[in-house]
Protein 1
Amino acid sequence: MRLTRYSILAGILVTLSALALSCVGQSLPGTSQQAADRMIELLQRKDFTPAIELGTQAVARWPRNPDLQHLLGLAHFQSGALESAVPELTRAALLAPTRADFHYDLGLSLLARKDYSKAADALKKSLQLKPENAVGRILLGRAYLNSNRGVLALEQFRLALTEDPNIPLGHYHLGFAYASLGRTREAIPELRKETELHPENGEAQYQLGHTLLETGEATAAVPVLKKAIALDAGRAEAHYDLGKALAAAGDYKSATEALRQSITLNPDDPSAHYQLARVLEKLGQRDQAQEEFATFARLKKNQPAEGGMASGRVR
């Protein structure tokens, strides 16, 4: 294929651009502070590759400088390279153990990596150094909850709300923690507060509707689940729960529509086929119901024998 003049020029520009970025990393500023300032500039511009190149060389030259180590970790973290971010941020926290922000950023990267136990340790250290951090307490609560320490999570979510009663997701996380501990009656008012403070939060709307349904309040769940769907129509479980709630309220026709939409979005969920079969039986559509029962049995058989919620009880 013949190269056009434009494509040749474009190739030259790309090559020059790559060389320019490479030179950024190869030309170290004269002092560690100048290197840190330059890295901050690059991070603010989201130029992560040259920031990482510069940071790597700066840390090699000034290995005992915690700020450079921290900035290099942030560059990796913001570029999405969690496996590279964690060791750099860990070293920064070891070099400057009294820096609350270093432990906080380490905890955040560990949380993103789903290393919940270590994330909790880092976030706890950060809060010991700087207790007034409502967002930090929310994150610590999440780390506790995801490492099966629900009671400790409740404490952190309550403390976060004491510091900032209107913090986004504060009541949501407290309600979710109550629900995860089986304390659904206590979860409902917290989830309701979240939907009142932040009505655009589709996740909170869904969890409120789901919890109402779980506690037998199907009629109250219907409008909440409809609002959750209006905020996020692609959420299969919201359509599924709406179908269950409508069926429990006796509106079988609308229930079939909701359940069919759930199946459209997630055709491999056996529970949706099972619930649809039961509703079709109520409507006297026995042949269609048997088809759905057969699909349910096939999908259920293909599920893994283990795997928690993925292995699927009939919901």
Note: Residues 161 and 229 are 28 Å apart (CA to CA).
Protein 2
Amino acid sequence: MFPFNKRAFFLLGLCLFLVACLGKAHKERPPHFAYEGKHGPNEWSHLAPSYQTCSTGRHQSPINIDTKQVERTALPPLSVHYQVSAILEINNGHTIEDDVAPGDFISLGDDNYELVQFHFHHPSEHTLSGKYFPLEIHLVHKNSQGQTLVLAVFAESGSTLPALNTFFDHLPTEHQALRLRANPASLLPIHLDFVQYEGSLTTPPCSEGVTWLVLTEPVFASAAQINKFAALYPHNNRPLMPPNGRHLLSGL
């Protein structure tokens, strides 16, 4: 009987371990948020203690980029070092997110920020002198100190942006993933003039200390491309946040 009991205790221990892991995973899953209703932006700070910054933060994003308020100054130069990379495209329930393999980065002066992922908002989250755009692309970067920098690209309705076909041809449903190869640089405009400001993540937990570089030249996307994303996400943009005296900076 001893071997049987030993095996039974082993199986019981394994089951308890798996139950504990599943329970921990369930507890660690972030609370659901949405863009309207009882889980919408006005309620984000009430969904979890870790979301408090969504209402208490003073440097929240997005904001209106008022070109009349932009200060010209000597900013570090921006250079982009993207290449054809392996990309995992997922539908995370809030947007289409494209996770990028290591190797792509941007340089802001002497500081390098590695591209982690990019995703889409419809309509745009930021506005440019009060103007909304049909799409906004956020390219999310991290430096070696773990600081976040987001490069924001507006997409205006017009001619087809061929690069978007790579990401929008077969948009994944929730809990589905697609493997792609593409160069994220194909999502950028020709000129990289930007407005820099200090803000936050635009989704919970709304963490601050994020450097935003908002490109002022948009790319163009066709109505068909925009509508294809909008069919999945008709409204996934956070309302504008007050500037609270923040400086909008652009290069000389």
Note: Residues 8-19, 21-27 have pLDDT under 50 and may be disordered.
Protein 3
Amino acid sequence: MSARIAPLLAALPLLAPAGAAREPRFEAGLIFPPGYLHSHASCIVECPNRDLLACWYVGSGERRADDVAVVGARKRAGARAWSEPFPMADTPGFPDCNPCMVIGPDGVLRLFWVTIQANEWHTALLKCRTSRDYQRRSGAPRWSAEQVIHLKPGEEFTRRVREAVEQDLARLDRYPEAARPLLREYLERRARNAGDRYFNRLGWMPRAHPFVLDRQRLLLPLYSDGFDFSLMALSGDGGQTWDVSLPLVGEGPVQPSLVRRRDGALAAYFRDNGLPPKRLLYSESRDDGRTWTPPRDTEIPNPGAGVEVRGLRDGRWLLVNNDTERGRHSLAVSLSDDEGRTWRWTRHVERDEPGPLAGGYSYPSVIQARDGSIHLTYSHSLPAARAEKDAAGRPLRESIKHVRFDLEWVTQQRRDAR
């Protein structure tokens, strides 16, 4: 896989101007030139030596193509260009998808991803690789261990899901009469699957960054396309063993991203996989992620696309999302100084007019580096009409984009609170 795609993935320099840095600073560029292969779902981390490491999955499709692999690239501290991409995880004959990474207080790099067993998302098998030798001049980290993460939701999971289904069935009259039979079938299938040990132990996938609670405790946000809701995997021994939270059941709360409030509570923002109105969903936990309030709609638009939120060192929160109810043609960065009650500042890193010529900009991954700057990666897809073609006539559309900016760039433009 890697040998076949390597010629397509040569690095591009960032589009930063030469000379002294501007104030405020904003730089953007593709990690590799656009290709015809599907490139999606990136994650970025900063290494202790200030190198940047990014990963994503690439192949001729997603879960239905067996050539999909997780690849990565590094940008060494002070360098202008990213390295040529290298393999991070590739299970021969199976698609590897949805990677995310974290570097813990112990200095260990952990890569989480899923291998799709039967070309459907609900057959995802959760895996993890670890490395201490990842700050290299070139090439992939040297992995020291790999494990399958076995999850066992248990009887309380089944009970909570079935209780939620009963509540939803009792409220079916909220929906148009023509839609009720399909909704009833969907909810009853959810209840059956909640008690199926094969179904409820597979299909849990990562998306946003894992959350470090302390030196030994990790929280891995997970979701299931089979259930259309989320749960948290919890480890108290640095990722050796895992337990699960109670499920976060609602109208499509998936792909959670976590941030810590000043009062100690954890806050989660979710992609909306449910019915309109399409909004980011929100939940809170006051016991470090074991139990959560029912996910509820916020006022922030979401078209059914990934989101990430980060707590910054100055106490503010940074949110990156597609700020539409339909389409991924607009990618916004918002800043809150009151822990998400309002988002006073918003700037767009991408914004096209909706229509056939609009690009797709989605699945953000964002960090604050040690120097205070913000690094953002995301899937960058051009419409076929705007893309160049290779010698075989295939449109060269897809890449991963990297953006670096200062917080002053965001606060240059103020928007009224939502």
Note: The longest strand covers residues 38-46.
